[in-house]
Amino acid sequence: MKQTTNSILMIRPVAFRMNEQTAVNNYYQKVLDGLLPATVNAKAQQEFDVFVEKLQAVGVDVTVVDDTLNPDTPDSIFPNNWISFHENGDVALYPMFAVNRRQERREEILDMLEEKGFMIQNIVDYTSAEEDGFFLEGTGSLLLDRANSKAYCALSPRADEELFIEFCEDFDYAPVIFEAFQTVDSERKLIYHTNVMMCLGETFAVICMDCIDDKKERKMVLDNLKENNKEVILISEDQVNNFAGNMLEVRGTNDKRYLVMSAAAHQSLTSKQIAQLEKHAEILSSSLDTIEACGGGGARCMMAEIFLPRN
Fold it and tell me: What PANTHER family does this protein map onto (predicted)?
């Protein structure tokens, strides 16, 4: 199984704003005072377009789908939370915490991918768990080490343990389960998505170990990464707040590896960390300030990796 892909799906926003329904447990979201909603959306669109251009310029195959005005989906720019694509042709659909995010799941997106030559064999649908109040938000909640058949998950209100284990059984992954925290108003609170504090590359892992308060869990996560010969690159909680954990390794022209992140994430890294990362992949960064502030998600969240076979 490949760990990285050349193909990604991205959703261009039409009514992006701070989503009040997700702000209850996404402590990275901020209100941008004095900006009209139309201005916020225009800035987000501009950031989105520049980001897509940068990816395409290095040979990443980006499928861009425009969001629709109805229904109202302010977070549609983060498709990796509701869908994941797998090498055997499986597509997984995930249960979402925020009611207004559930409408992001659009069947016609699958039709568009099939029109582009991607092959979908089977849809594994976990969305009925929403009715019982259980959630698992795609590759936001679960980090897949596809090559080594391991899945990492920091439990939170948006990542249910039983559902995660069910996913691992269905897709044949060994579960690595822990809890990750951030300090909010001097209180330790669960981080809403694993991919904010951790990134898995082919030959490396970026992780904030300080977020894992339990020493045994910390050691267990580290042991799992080292067992698969990942170079572990540590980041601080302050860097997590700048979305330095929210990165994704993709492939460009001639299978060249790129590590994609926001400008804020890139700027927060030390020269030593940059040198460590550049041994594995070339860094590609783009300014996503509005999207990160209002959406509470960064570069990684905006890209749903497509591993489907092609005709």
Answer: AMIDINOTRANSFERASE
Q: Give the pLDDT confidence of 68-103 residue by residue, as tens digits.
A: 888 878 788 999 999 999 999 999 999 999 888 898
Phi, psi (rounded to 5 degrees) for 62: -105, 120
Q: Are the C-beta atoms of 78 and 196 separated by less than 8 Å?
A: no
pTM, rounded to two decimals: 0.93
Return left, alpha or beta for 190; rule: phi > 0 is left, psi -120 to 50 is alpha, else beta. beta
Q: What are 159-173's pLDDT values in tens digits?
A: 999 999 999 999 999
Residue range 99-110: mean pLDDT, rounded: 91
Q: Token pair for residue 171?
A: 């897709």
